[in-house]
Amino acid sequence: MDLPEWLRPLADAVRDPGALGGLPALLAPEDGVGRASAVLIAVGDSGRGPAVLLIQRAATLRRHAGQVAFPGGAVDPSDEHHLAAALREAQEEVGLDPASVRPVAELPALYIPRSGFVVTPILAWWERPHPVVAVDPAEVARVAVVPVTALVDPAHRFTVRHPSGFTGPAFDVDGLFVWGFTAALLDRLLDLGGWAQPWDRAVTRPLPQHLSGRPAT
Q1: Contact assessment for residue 36 and residue 149, using Cβ atoms and an 8 Å cutoff
Q2: d(Cα 199, Cα 144) in Å, to the nearest integer?
Q3: If you average pLDDT over every residue of the chain, what do you get?
Q4: Contact indicator for 158, 205 with CB cutoff of 8 Å
Q5: Could you give the dihedral angle defined by the CA atoms of residues 171, 172, 175 and 179, in that order, rounded to the nearest 10 degrees?
Q6: DSSP label at 141?
Q7: 43: exposed, middle or buried (C-beta count within 10 Å: 0-12, 13-18, 19+)?
Q8: pLDDT per residue over 82-102, tens digit each?
Q9: CA of 96: how far to CAs of 1, 86, 89, 150, in Å?
Q10: Which residues pair with residue 119 across a beta bridge?
Q11: 8-148: what CATH class?
């Protein structure tokens, strides 16, 4: 595939079956439990360098309210494969034209115990970026195309601490608090793409209460 030079290192790296070996706790269980789902990691040229498409889920949702995520969702019976599911969801959520992206690689499935989903990330080159919006505000509160330069800025990076004691990489960029599954995957992809910059993992912030899924005390 004829990819732009800036995307080739990441495309080559994710084709390694062990590319997500840095996320062992998320690797899908071998017993097959969990509901199949897929997310689209659409990376394109924003005019300011590479950028990734992210959404912020509506605050009124029963699951993952207010969370920042990649477009995506559960695989439907009508979906031929994970790519089809990821493209369908992206179209439904942000109006992404499936013809505007070129699939690069299907990454190993990752398990999210809290939701019970087994998520297959699909890396794609957003070859022809176009305006995207929250198609249904009841599902998606905001859509953002976030430059990689902003994601790797050490000033936007820190370790988040969940009330349960969980800690992991996080980002605070363009008014978005990115943590959990999405932040862990972004953290790994930035490393694989050769974009990451050193950042201070000792800087720790508590997870905002409205994102914790726990009632206020």
Answers
A1: no
A2: 23
A3: 90
A4: yes
A5: 40
A6: E
A7: buried
A8: 999 999 999 999 999 999 999
A9: 21, 11, 9, 23
A10: 37, 110
A11: alpha beta
Residues composing the chain: 217
Beta strands 167-173; 176-178: pairing state: antiparallel
User: Which pLDDT belongs to residue 25?
Assistant: 56
Is there a contact between 31 and 113 (Cβ–Cβ < 8 Å)?
A: no
Give backbone dihedrals phi and psi of 10, rounded to 5 degrees, phi first: -70, -45
CB atoms within 10 A of CB 132: 23
Q: Specify whether the CB–CB gap between 105 and 11 falls below 8 A.
A: yes
Residue with tokens 């605070």, as numbered in its chain? 172
Tokens describing residue 206: 């508590």
Nearest to 95 by CA among 127, 140, 45, 138: 140
Question: Up-side HSE of residue 187: CA atoms within 13 Å toward CB?
Answer: 24
- Measured CA to CA, the distance from residue 49 to residue 62 in angstroms comes to 35
- Please return the burial class of 201, using the count of CB atoms within 10 Å of its CB with bins 0-12, 13-18 and 19+: exposed
The residues, any chain, with a CB within 8 Å of residue 3's CB and separated by 6 or more, are 11, 104, 125
- The tens digit of pLDDT for each residue in 26-48 reads 666 666 667 889 999 999 998 88
Residue type, 10: L
